[in-house]
């Protein structure tokens, strides 16, 4: 029994809570609101006439199967929401420009708040005075700027949190909020240490401390939960529209159900974006705490300086992605136990 509990609390719990449970919620909604209107379909009619225990067993099995299916398809499901998959080029470009405008607006609002605080303390430089006048003259910022001055510290922290959901570099911006929230965590190791966590993901997971690995798995559950709810609601809304189309008369309940489910899908999307905060912090801990054991596991010694460490991870990333090249021999000076045969000093250019 103890081993079963360990298995559920380990990898199995993320599957149950992240995918099977929200699938069960969607199946329950199907049984409550759609099943009675689908009696015209023979298999559904037989299910509706079956005993309650049989109905419960069928719906439970459907929830497990649907949850497992969504889990197996999670990569393409996420990529659609991130903006990678299924987006026409014009939609991708439009969404990306929209997100870049949102990013600039957040940066300008926070910059304006910072400069307004310095102005109240009489600490503005001449260049900062010009920047503040420019921000106040921006019509796009005028209303926001006036409101932001009355924000208290926790509200300003939430504004900074929204900014942190974007990648640091503008060229990494994607056309969706979820895509940007996930992209910033994917780029954390590369932006700070030149450690590509996407390339070395499995190595990082294998080398990092157990508690850190478990933290990443647990932190992702919330995002998976809302993503699964979102897709399930969209499928139910599409089913409601299809059933409505097959009926001879107009059904207010089916139309209202499709609208309500679509509205809730938007809410689940926003909650999925908000839930990435915990996941991002777990990824940050994985990179920060897993770098040293990863270097040791790869037969390398973590350099004393950040500059050298960035060079080491860059060389290792190139070796993994591009294959061996004679320039990869520069990695030798970072190998553990090679200090007597290889100089740790940067070679003269």
The fraction of residues in strands falls at: under 5%
Helix fraction by DSSP (H/I, runs of at least 4): over 70%
Q: Could you say which structural class the secondary elements and strand pairing correspond to? A: mainly alpha
Count of structural domains: 3
Terminal Cα separation, in Å? 63 Å
Tally the helices: what do you get?
14
Q: Which shape, going by the Cα principal axes? A: globular
The beta-strand count equals 0
Q: Compute the CA-based radius of gyration.
A: 26 Å
Low-confidence stretches: 1-9, 339-345
Q: Element order, helices and strands?
A: HHHHHHHHHHHHHH
Mean pLDDT: 88
If you had to describe this structure to a student in words, what would you say it looks like?
The protein is mostly helical and 349 residues long. It folds into 3 domains: 2-83 and 195-295, no CATH class; 95-174, no CATH class; 299-349, no CATH class. It has 14 helices and no strands. α1 packs across α3, α1 (2-34) packs parallel to α12 (210-246) and α4 packs across α9 (177-186). The chain is globular. The termini are far apart. Mean pLDDT is 88; it is low at 1-9 and 339-345.
